[in-house]
Amino acid sequence: MTFSVYLSGEIHTDWRDEIIKGVEASALDIEFTSAVTDHDASDAAGDHLGPEPNSFWRDHKSAKVNAIRTKTLIEMSDIVVVRFGDKFKQWNAAFDAGVCAALGKPYITLHDDSIVHPLKEVDAPALAWAKSTDQVVDILKYVVQQ
Fold first, then answer.
1. Which alpha helices (DSSP H) does the chain contain, by range?
2. Residues 6+ apart with CB under 8 A from 107
């Protein structure tokens, strides 16, 4: 059985690549999906619907277009990994975790100790909290190989 893992969260580090490489090195039967990780492309996702002089409405259109992809891929996934970095606020990642909780979709949070307190409500329904990509790979190994 091929597992589908959706990678949600911050886009400014190579954590996705680290997990994918770890899974490939372990020869696990996992396929990965993700949100659009090109910040400019994500911000412009709704631009083809027409110009917006007000940035709120541009963001609104793009968020909705991005949500088509995000909602569909989260629903199709078996497991979601939600990464929170310390450099920027990842409100979208927190929202993705909430969607997972509402759907009963298993998810793993990935972040360091410095943001445990602000993420307590996000971590509470998560089935695991990992501090490193290696820990995420180890969880995936256990889940897939057992």
1. 15-25, 39-43, 55-76, 91-103, 120-123, 133-145
2. 79, 80, 81, 82, 97, 100, 101, 125, 126, 127
Q: How far apart are CA 129 and CA 108, in angstroms?
A: 6
pLDDT per position as a tens digit, 86-112? 877 788 899 999 999 999 999 999 999
**Integer Cα distance of 19 and 16 in angstroms:** 5
Give strand pairing partners of 30.
3
Q: Which residues of 15-48 are buried (b: 16+ CB within 10 A; e: fewer)?
A: bbeebbebbeeeebebebbbbbeeeeebbebbee
Cα dihedral: 30, 125, 128, 100 (round 10): 20
Name the pTM for this structure: 0.94
Where do the domains of the chain lie, and which CATH numbers do they carry? 3-39+77-145 (3.40.50.450)
Mean pLDDT of 64-82: 97
Angle at which helix 133-145 crosses helix 15-25, to 10 degrees, equals 40
